[in-house]
Structures are given as C-alpha cells and as structure tokens.
Amino acid sequence: MLFRSAVPSSFPGLAAVRCLFGMGEGPVYPAFNNFIGRWFPSGEKARASSFLLSGSFIGPVFGPAITVALMLALGWRSVFFIFGVVGVLVAFLWYRYVKEKPGQSPLVNAAEKEYIEAGAVAGGKKMAPWSAFMRSRQFWAIGIQYFITDYIMFVFLAWLPLYLMEAQKFSLQKMGWAAALPWAMLCGLTFLAGYISDRMVAAGVSKNKARTVFGIAGLLVCCVTLYFAATAGEPWQNVLWLTVSLGSLGFTFNASWAACHDIGGAYAGSVAGWMNFWGNVGGVLAPIVTAWIATTYGWQAADAGCVGICWTNTQPNMPAWGAKDRRIGNNPFVMAVPRKEGHVVVDIAMAQFSYGQMENKAMRGELLPVPGGYDEQGNLSCDPKEIAKTWRVLPIGYWKGSALSIVLDLVAAVLSGGRSTHGVGKLGSDEYGLSQMFIAMDATRIAGNDSLTSAVNEVLENLHGSVPVDPAKPVLFPGENSAAIRKANQANGIPVDDSVWEKIKSL
C-alpha cells in the first residue's frame, strides 16, 4: 500500500489507498499478541509485549530524520516507494522463517520447545466467549484506557512535527531530530516496563496489580508533563517535557498488551483486537479533533463571546513605503467582535490586495478595481500580472499601512519571543517559523452582555442606513459577506480554480 500511496493523482484516490493501508495494519497487533501467547511462557509475556511495542516505536525514532533526508534528496514520493520496499522485505522474511508454533520452527531445539510450551497458552480454535467478555468490567476498561492512550500517541504522531516547526520555530532538519526524541524515550521505557513488570510478578506481586500500577502511573506522568511542556519558556525545555510525556506512556502500553493475556488467556488475540479497535478509534479522532481545536481563532474567539485580535508576520514580501525592494510583510490582521446575529470580523492583509486575490484576478484575466502596486516602469497599476513581475505591492493607506506592518511585526516577534519578518526571510523560500499573536477579551465582563449587544447593533444599523453608490450593492459590515461565504463553503466545499486543481492533480 505504501507503493500505491505515492501513485494517486487525487485526494480521494490517496484517501482510498490510505484506508486500505489501515485495513492491512489493523489485524497486525492482535495477531502478534496471539503469537506471544503461543511462543512465550507466562512469566515472560510482559517482556515479550514490551519488545514488540519497542520495535514498533523505533520507526518514529528514526523516521522523521530519514523522511526529511529522503524528501530533500529524492522528493516526497520516494518516501513511500522506499518504505514500501522495506515493508515487502520484512513481510517476506516473516512468512519464510516465522512459524505458528515453536514445535514447527527448525530454530527451536527440544529443550527450548519444552520450556516454552510448559508456560505458554495454547491458542484454541473455539469462538471467543464474547457474551462473557461484554459483561466484564475489565474488558470494557481495557478498551477505554487504550482509547485514551492511543489518542495521546496519535496526537504526537500527527501533530508533533508541525508543532515543532510552527510553534517552536524549528527548521525542517532540526525538527527531524527533535521529533525523534519522544519516540526514543517511549521505546526505551516500554522495554524497561516489561522487564520490571515480569520481575514484580516473579516476586509475588499479582499480575492485576502490576498492570494496574504501571497503566495508571504512565497516564498520570503523561498528563502532568504535558502541562509542563505547555508552560515551558524555551523550545528545548518544551521538547524535554514532551519527551518525558510520550515516553511515560511506555508503561501504559506495556501494561495494556500484557493485560490482554491476563484477561483473555487462550483468547488473548480477541481481547487484543477489541482493545486495538478502541485505540484506533482514538487514532481516527486525534488528528481531526486536535485540528478543530487549533484552527479558526478569530471566529472561535467571537463564538466564545470574546473580542478577538489576531495577527501574524510573513516573509518579506512587500516594500516599505518609499522603497523598491521587499523588506516588510503584508502581515494578515484579524479583529472580531461577537454578535448573536452574525459576528463582525475583519480579516485583512497589510497590502492593498493580497497575493492570493491578485493571482485569482490574473487567472481570470481581470484588472484590480483600484491600483494595487507598481509595474516595471514604476507606475501605479491595476494589472495584477504586471505587479507580480515587480513584487511592489501597495501597502494599505500608503505610508500608514507600511507603518502598521512594521509595528505588527515588531509586537508579534517581541511578545512571542519568535522571529521577525527579517528572520523568517532568512529561512528560505518556504514560509514557516512565523510569529503569531492571539488575543481574546471577554467583553461581557467589561460592559455586560446587554450593553455589548446594544452598542454593536446600534453601530451596524447606522451603517446599513448608508446610501450605497450602487443600489444593487448594499453597504455591509466587515464579516457580513464572509459569514455567508464561509457557511456555503462548509456545506458545499471550497471552490478551486480549474487550472490550480489540474496542477495539484499532476503532482
């Protein structure tokens, strides 16, 4: 499936292939757990589970650095092809040399076979007692805790690289190494947990107590250190706490998979499948829910009844007033005022027209309604194609927009402790590592809800009473038309220019 992931030319095709990939991956862990029940005696099952899990976590340790290197050297499609070859090779070796039972393997001598089978759980051919399982609190508890554990792990898997680059301002290469550290810790502690757990059981501690202590301790340490990561002042302090946070889940992972044998016995594979099902539900929800939480800040502030003020800096993509070369950014700026009947939201760039707007006009062969920049002769122009040749876009309000862009850049960089527009420009042509500001103020605590509503409605009603230049085009408040467009896009999808879509499909 990794081969096929590199081939599709459309998003639905890629999504379909990735669904098939998940279908192939889903049975792997329950099958491995059933294998452990056949090949390992009772006193070694925790260590066997930890060895299995540690192996699966080694991938994310080396994966980010290897993936970045392959992408930079050979392109993103090479990652899928090369990893696919490795997967086929591993599958062949497993099929060729690994047997279902110890007695079937030429690599196991008689003494080893006797030792293994003396304490192993034989896999039966009977149907698992699902009715009894469904009445068991332990059966439901192992599913619920694995949902939580896998949710946290998949947040790290899906979002850690992006978080390190956008929030902590790491370069692509530095991100590759930083993202590997939490997984290295997870790998090591998972293996350690298995060893300690088996020693505890051998010393007389009940299996249930050993698994419970490890499972709860792992989740508690994870939650506490996530808080420390969120409040850390330095990027590498943040990485340190994130490393401890994810690593602590090694105790929980090991306890979970070892508990499958304690609960299921000969039906450990069925219990593992149930547990893994709930873990994968958490894996499905983790990127979606986390993305929803992390987006649409201006509208979210207004939805929460707050006045929102948000902005970011950019690459150097606009000349300062009186200059020809690009030294400042067209820093997007958002202000939002809550209103039950529809929020007042302004979302503007510091340029007269954003580059996206000018590109759309250029593709449709249209002119700008007012001058948006300078042509190659140094004259103000309404032709977006001519402005694109010079990159001399016009700041809003001329010198005032230039000044506002500079001040927004300074405040964002100083208060966030991040890069200025000048610093972002040093990173290369890709725009990342920006400094951003998100401010939310509960206006109802200042003026009261009734007073706020009355003041906003009074201003907007007066605005709607304006005499329009074009009777067919009423005067609207900021965000009034955007809200309708936003609602339509959420229902019907975002329209994309045909030529742009064809370029995307060809990648």
Q: Could you explain the architecture of this structure?
A:
The protein has 507 residues and is of the alpha+beta class. The protein folds into two domains: 2-293, MFS general substrate transporter like domains (Growth Hormone, Chain: A, Up-down Bundle); 297-351 and 395-506, Malate/L-lactate/L-sulpholactate dehydrogenase, NADPH binding domain (Ribosomal Protein S8, Chain: A, domain 1, 2-Layer Sandwich). It has helices spanning 2-5, 11-25, 28-39, 45-74, 76-97, 110-119, 130-134, 137-166, 172-202, 207-231, 235-264, 268-294, 297-303, 355-363, 384-390, 399-416, 421-425, 444-447, 449-464, 480-492, 498-506; strands at 306-312, 318-319, 326-328, 333-337, 344-348, 373-374, 380-381, 436-442. Helix 3 (28-39) runs antiparallel to helix 4 (45-74) and helix 8 packs antiparallel against helix 11. Mean pLDDT is 77; it is low at 1-6.
In short:
With 507 residues, the chain is α+β, with helices and mostly antiparallel strands. It is built from 21 helices and 8 strands.
